[in-house]
Amino acid sequence: MRPEGIQWTPPARAEGDPRPPTQWRRILALFRPYSGRLAVVGLLVAASAVVSVTTPFLLRAVLDTAIPQGRTGLLTALVLGMVAAAVVNSIFSVLQTLISTTVGQRVMHDLRTAVYGHLQRMSLAFFTRTRTGEVQSRIANDIGGMQSTVTSTATSLVSNFTAVIASVVAMVALDWRLTVVSLLLLPVFVWISRRVGNERKKITGERQKQLAAMSSAVQESLSVSGILLGRTMGRADSLSREFTGQSDRLAELEVRASMAGRWRMNTIQIVMAAMPAVIYWAAGMTAAGGAPIVSVGTLVAFVSLQQGLFRPTVGLLATGVQVQTSLALFQRIFEYLDLTVEIDEPEHPVTLDTVRGEVRFEGVDFRYDPEQERPTLAGVDLRIPAGGSLAVVGETGSGKTTLSYLVPRLYDVTGGRVTLDGVDVRELSFDTLARAVGVVSQETYLFHASVADNLRFAKPDATDAELVAAARAARIHDTVAALPDGYDTEVGERGYRFSGGEKQRLALARTILRNPPVLILDEATSALDNSTERAVQEAIDTLAAGRTTITIAHRLSTVRAADQIAVLDRGEVAELGTHEELLAADGRYAALLRREAPVAAVAR
């Protein structure tokens, strides 16, 4: 029995509980390895801010001193200073962009590799419950959506904050009264931007979920299997309509995300754009009632600084909105990084230099779900001596495949233990298990690469001669050699260039190349015709000599020569013995054999 393929969903979180402190600490921790580069960015930003605020003072000197007094030398020097400030600022800006973009891309790289590495450690149960498109969307779309945030936010925050502080100090130095007028509405602007950010964060979470759903639909329906199923079932138009609906919902969310708070943020920009006019009006009203409070040069310099203040202020507010929006993406990524690793390598793993191959199941119980009413396996006791063979047969859903998953530790037992050479497999290093146990599954998977690359996945340094030897042993060499490009032939998406039997023989060759002392064959010949099955079975029999073999059998004709045959019934070992012993007992095995006999006769 296997768990149904349901989509994984993160644990529910209480409404209004964004847990910002923890999330902020984790986000800042992502940048910690690059603190040195960020410090350089900070110095460049500070230097740029200082250079920027000198320009208005140079302008005031031009208007109040150089031009009225006709001092051309001073005028030339002041103008050259303004040009030099612009050049220096441009150089600083390019360097800031280079360093901050590099840091941002490294942070994204760290996130991608962290998520991918964490998912590689998840048990098989996680992937049976989670749609592949959902996983792909988290890595590609969610992390990709954070690109602008992680590549420019740090620089933008430091740059704009420094510019604001420098501008305020300079404005106070020019005239503190006009400075107070300029900053009156700033708290209101901050409050508005925070509300807009929260609104966009909520919409972004909905958008990413919809994007993940659409990615899953594309991955499932536009694969080779999906196309075949859709067309043969006459559902192509229906699938197109479903995708159109999903795309339409995504488009609506994109519009909502783009327009959320747009009028409020534009109101801020309108007010800020009007502030210079207010300053001119205030200065003019003062002059009308008496002597002006500031000179023309000071007034022009102040308005220039004010514009220099408003630009980074708007930038800070926009960055705040962007950061709040990105929190939804960070939350989705952290949800994956926080997934509990159910099957992990022990703190002090046992390494076996030489594996004899004795496998034992000692009182093994297993449940896919703790709340599962009846266990998938219950009280299984089996011993396969080194070099021996065990065949496992039974009705569909009796637990045969599940039993085979426990040896390579694709799942962990919930009771009892599985041992390899007397060592609990939960205490062995992953490397030892991978070297010791080879699996040929009934669900053969081939990468979209060449035949040679697919075989070398088991042994990257294998020579061409070793590839040919493994292929010959699996009775697939002649088929591959007859292809136009031989072993360089692309196998196609999921190996669709080959028949089911050819794919299984390629998978067998891949395992042969790895040469494990323990071989698990999960209905490895189920997709073969009778003549091909006999040829492959001969190869398996030859290769099984000297190695421990566990065969999950669909056709009982393939297991007669096994040292032991275990008959599973609803997760329990109902019978155990040789073919002759079980046949003489006239129990479940004999009944299965009689049921298969008419089918075999028809096939012949």
Walk me through what this model shows.
By secondary structure, the chain is α/β, with parallel strands linked by helices. Helices cover 63% and strands 9% of the residues. The chain has 21 helices and 10 strands.
Features:
elongated, single chain, disordered N terminus, 10 strands, alpha/beta, disordered C terminus
Rg, Å, rounded: 35 Å
Residue share in β-strands: 5-15%
How would you sum up the global shape? elongated
Name the poorly predicted regions: 1-21, 599-604
What structural class is derived from the secondary structure elements? alpha/beta
What does the largest sheet look like?
6 strands, mixed
Q: Termini separation (Å)? A: 31 Å
The largest sheet has its strands arranged as 6-7-8-3-9-10
Task: Output the number of helix runs.
Answer: 21
How many β-strand runs?
10
Chain-averaged pLDDT:
76
Helix content: 55-70%
